[in-house]
Structures are given as structure tokens and as C-alpha cells.
Design brief:
Oligomer: single chain
Shape: globular
Mean pLDDT: 86
Structural class: alpha/beta
Number of helices: 14
Distance between the termini: 32 Å
Helix content: 25-40%
Length: about 450
């Protein structure tokens, strides 16, 4: 079944080069505003080299690569790198860029839905045709952005997979590859599953690159830095491992989510972000580490995926409660030994258990604003508020105190108060039990 036009958010495809040029592109949007916004994002991705976040000088590129000796498509599939990055729009909404890169060229899908595996499969299937189309055009002048036209086989395939024909969440679709047509019938097709992220754990999130660091201390330190909203840099030499680790770090915060600057791959032109006074969670290619060291950055937590080293902030460890932190360590070790963290659901559950232990009792401290007027700094929503002082007098007060000032804690509490208000309006009672499943 097709999603109706009004609920479709705009998507785009582009074929970008390391030199900051766009070979081909197309945008799918149900209105002009959406189309304009998407074209502007494509432009940013291409020019700022979001798909090539290494230091420019260290790029494996030479003048000879640009002519006929461009990477051949046959052997290319073996060397493909899969990764994703994120752009944040003016209204705070995130757009993901899912990239499949071969040498000095990358195919990218931009979309609101983080269907990582789905889009990687689309790009893998489109790869040979996209490169054939690119070679068939004369792009030496570099100025013309080549729009794919609707009568091209590649456009037809993209329209069916990321455009109008994109499947609804939670459904599978089999789409013919129009360029394999023989006597009008496609001889090959792609079977794609669109995840329903309201129900399924996002299969594109993989914890393996984080667990590969090899020692649990590094992960606990990263987790503590995130929970207290520090400025966090994850660094490494593989773009795939790096972007995977940053997305996994964000997923580890569920049912909360990172509210600040979030750049799983930080392109070189954005290095100044690292001097920002607010929290951030970024992935920085190791070739840019010397440039970062030269900037006036203070108090950054850095985790290096290549050698497992990390910044030690003693106060972060002090705030972490002994019991739940021990369970966190044991759980992560168990998943590492069991499958190196391949079972992403199980790893996510380890982190979730930590939060349910710390935050699980919040419902007992919810009050109505009428019966109990709240203090000025209380987090409230829909005539309910959380008595944080009372909540902090519980077993895990130190951790709750450390989280109190964070935006993600505030957003979490607000959302939960709103959910409780819905139940309270129906039943007349603030829910105490399992009417709202949190963790």
C-alpha cells in the first residue's frame, strides 16, 4: 500500500563526489516548500562534503581518478562503505543521510525516517545503474547539477522505493529493477522491508562498533558523559564504525533522546562546532583529531574507537549509582562475550534496565498543580508536575541530581506527565501502575 501524499515527508537522492560536486540528484516532495527545503539540504550535503568527513588532504584522491580511470562498478561493491550522517533543520527536526560510498563517490538518500538498512539496500541495488548513468553524462564542467528525469529507469526505481511508491512502515515490497528489463519485463527485483519504528527496534542501530572498544570502562564512561550532557566526541578511522557508534550511543539513551547538536559524522567545515559552549554528540574522523586539538575546546569527553582510550572525568563516575552501574557492566560484558553485541535488542535492554531502575519510581512523585502548587523550577505539563526534591530523596538521588539540569531529562519528564494526564482525564487517577509502559 502507498502512503498518501500528505503524510509523505520529502526525500532526496544524490550522487556526490569528494571534490564537492553533484553528479546526479532527484527530490521527491508532495509540495513546493518541501522540495525547496530538500534541494537546499542536498546542496549542503554535497558542498560541505558530508559523505567525505575526512580531512581533505588525507583523502585518497588524485587527479588521475577523475577521468576514465574512475572506479569500475564491478569490483566496487566489495569496497563499498556504508554509513549515515545527520542534518538538523531550522525547526529542530533531524534528517538522516544514508550513504554508500565507493572511493571518491557516494550515493546518498536524505530522509526524515531513519530506515538505515532499507536505504542501504536501495542504494546497493541502484549502485551499478547510478554509476552507469553518471558515466554516460559529461560532468567535466562540474557546474550543471544533473537532475534525473522521470523517464529514466533509475528515477523510476527511486520513485518506487523512496518517493511516491515508498512502502508503509512495517510492510515489505518487491520492486523491479527497471534497467534489467528484457522485452519490457524486468528480470531482477529488490525485496525491501520498511521498518515500523514505533514497534520494532531499529535494526540499523548496531552496538558492535561500541562494544569492539573491548573494555567496559570506556562504555560506562561514555554513557555517564551522555547522561550528564557533556560535550562528547567519538573518534576513529573508519567512517562506518564511527557513524555506527554515535548512532548506537544515542540509542543507548532510550527512553530519553539526545536533544542537542548531533552529528554522527562531523565534516571538516563544521569543526568550529567543537568550540560550542553547549552539549554535543559528534563523530570525528581520526584525520581531524590534530585540527581539534588545535581548537580552544574545554572539557570534551573523547572516546577513541581505534585504541579504546577515553577521557576520565572522575565526577561522572562518582554520580553513577553502584548497583545499577554494576548490572550495566555485567550486562554489557555478557553481550560482548555472547555475540560481540550483535544482538542489538539485548544490548539496548541492558541500558534500558539501568534507566528503569533509576527513573522507574517517578510516578509516585507526580502531583496535581491545584492540590499541590509547584515551586518555580518544577517540570510541569498539563496541570501535573514532578516533585523532583522528593524524587531525589530516593535511593538514586545523586544520579537524579546529575540529570536534573539536562534537557533530555526535562523532555522525558514532560512527555511522561502528558501521558499521565491523558490517563488521569479518563480514570480520574494519576497512573501508578503499568498503564504507561516506560522502559
Amino acid at each position: 500500500g502507498m502512503a498518501s501524499a500528505h503524510e509523505r515527508t520529502p526525500t532526496a537522492f544524490c550522487h556526490a563526489t569528494r571534490r564537492g560536486q553533484c553528479v546526479t540528484q532527484c527530490v521527491f516532495a508532495s509540495d513546493d516548500a518541501g522540495e525547496r527545503e530538500m534541494r537546499a539540504l542536498v546542496d549542503v550535503v554535497v558542498r560541505q562534503r558530508f559523505a567525505f568527513p575526512e580531512r581533505a588532504a588525507s583523502a585518497p584522491s588524485s587527479a588521475a581518478d577523475d577521468d576514465a580511470s574512475a572506479p569500475s562498478t564491478s569490483g566496487a561493491a566489495a569496497r563499498a562503505e556504508r554509513f549515515s550522517f545527520t542534518l538538523t533543520k531550522e525547526d529542530g527536526a533531524r534528517v538522516v543521510g544514508v550513504a554508500r560510498r565507493v572511493g571518491d563517490e557516494a550515493l546518498v538518500v536524505l530522509a526524515r525516517a531513519p530506515w538505515f538498512d532499507y536505504f542501504w539496500t536501495v542504494l546497493e541495488k541502484a549502485h551499478d545503474e547510478a554509476f552507469r548513468v553518471a558515466r554516460a553524462r559529461d560532468t567535466n564542467d562540474g557546474e550543471d547539477i544533473e537532475e534525473l528525469s522521470r523517464d529514466e529507469a533509475l528515477w523510476e526505481f527511486l520513485n518506487r522505493t523512496i518517493g511516491e511508491g515508498a512502502p508503509k512502515p512495517g510492510t515489505s515490497t518487491t520492486t523491479p529493477l527497471p534497467w534489467t528489463a528484457f522485452a519490457g519485463i524486468a528480470t531482477q527485483s529488490a525485496t525491501l522491508y520498511a521498518p515500523d519504528l514505533k514497534k520494532d527496534f531499529n535494526s540499523g542501530i548496531r552496538f558492535t562498533t561500541l562494544l569492539d572498544v573491548g573494555h567496559v570502562d570506556a562504555l560506562v564512561a561514555l554513557f555517564a558523559a551522555l547522561v550528564t550532557e557533556r560535550r562528547v566526541v567519538v573518534t576513529g578511522s573508519s567512517v562506518s564504525a564511527l557513524s555506527g557508534a554515535v548512532h548506537a550511543a544515542n540509542a543507548a539513551l532510550f527512553p530519553m533522546s539526545w536533544q542537542h547538536i548531533f552529528l554522527p559524522l562531523l565534516p571538516e567545515p563544521f569543526l568550529d562546532y567543537l568550540t560550542a559552549p553547549m552539549p554535543f554528540l559528534v563523530g570525528l574522523h581520526s584525520s581531524l583529531l590534530p585540527a581539534m586539538r588545535a581548537l580552544p575546546c574545554e572539557d570534551i569527553f573523547v572516546l577513541n574507537l581505534d585504541d579504546g582510550s577515553f577521557t576520565y572525568f572522575e565526577e561522572d563516575f562518582d554520580a553513577m549509582p553502584a548497583g545499577p552501574t554494576t548490572l550495566l557492566r555485567v550486562g554489557l560484558l555478557r553481550e560482548f562475550e555472547r555475540s560481540r553485541g550483535e544482538d542489538a535488542r539485548a544490548v539496548a535492554r541492558v541500558f534500558r534496565t539501568f534507566f528503569s531502575t533509576i527513573l522507574g519510581g517517578y510516578k509516585r512523585h507526580i502531583k496535581g498543580v491545584v492540590a499541590h502548587p509547584p515551586p518555580k523550577d518544577a517540570i510541569s505539563a498539563e496541570s501535573l508536575w514532578l516533585d523532583h526534591d522528593e524524587f531525589m530523596n530516593t535511593k538514586y538521588g545523586a544520579m537524579l541530581a546529575a540529570m536534573r539540569g539536562t534537557q533530555m531529562y526535562e523532555v522525558f519528564v514532560r512527555r511522561r506527565l502528558s501521558m499521565c494526564a491523558v490517563v488521569a482525564r479518563k480514570t480520574g487517577f494519576i497512573p501508578q501502575a503499568e498503564e504507561i509502559v516506560d522502559f
